[in-house]
Amino acid sequence: MKITKQQYATLKEQTEFKKSAIKYADCTTFLPSEEKAEVNKAKYLYEDDEEKGVLKRTIVLNTYNWLDSHGDVHLTGTFGKSISERGNKIPHLHDHVFQLDARVGKPIKFYEKEISWRELGASKTGMTTALFMESEIRKSFNERVYADYLKNEIDQHSVAMRYVKVELAINDGDEYPKEKAVWDKVIGLLGNRKQAEEQGFFWAVSEAALIEGSAVLLGSNELTPTLGGKGQPHKSTEPEPEPSVDTQRLVEEINKLSTKIKN
Prior knowledge:
26% helix; 263 residues; 10-stranded mixed β-sheet; 10 strands
């Protein structure tokens, strides 16, 4: 995709908008293309105490080096500073509802750790890094969500975050050398590189403040499963949803500009 000067102005405007906005990372446009491999249950915290109404689960809140439906690529270490500062004060909620009765679990710890692409379900060899949360999911918080975790039916998660450091990357060194330098630095790391190349641009996020983590139907970063359950992670059978609002807005603006240029 060739980026025109007018489109570039729109992208720069969107970059500034990101810096001033909170991102709720749900509603994805990218679904896994292959069945996800089963993971080793013993490798992750995965415990059931139905008598007490408490489950312990290892959850992937965000996978780094993956282009999401907001056009963002979170780089390794994006949330490191935030989790070291806030730790377990970051809540485990459902659907980004930020209130007391939206809690579903009490976080035990957050950490960033290497994990294989295939273990997350991507059809790619090698390793990446992900943001993990170990959480104590309580029936007393939310019986329905508790039951879904118990039945291994929640395999999508999402974060609410505030951008701290974000750079625009564009695959065009002649017109945009600064942005091309960011592109060259990051593109080789991506697990879904082909999608980035088709789009021609993305935002590289190197630091963000983590506000909360939520269980959702579909995340903008779909590589966000609950780990350790039998057969998980698995391919979603849900129909493909609409793109996120900010992505729709950006694509619409770029398409309008392209139409004007052609006419």
